[in-house]
């Protein structure tokens, strides 16, 4: 295997009121990955 370096700067925001804070934390036009409720995700994504 070749040597390599990988840098993935990530900010994780969670808890009560986290969604309301997102607009203040992100520059205009940013993309996010939102993860919520495993049960809901399983029903809507995996079961399809």
> Main β-sheet, in a few words?
none
Total number of helices:
2
Label the overall shape.
extended
How many domains, as an integer? 1
Low-confidence stretches: none
The counted number of beta strands is 0
Approximate strand percentage: under 5%
- Helix proportion: 25-40%
What is the C-alpha radius of gyration, as a whole number of Å?
16 Å
Distance between the termini: 38 Å
SSE blueprint:
Elements: H1 18-25, H2 38-46
Q: How would you describe this protein?
A:
The structure is a single chain. The protein is an all-alpha fold and 48 residues long. It has one domain (1-48). 35% of the residues lie in helices and 0% in strands. The protein is extended. The chain starts with 17 loop residues before the first helix and ends with a helix. The mean pLDDT is 77.
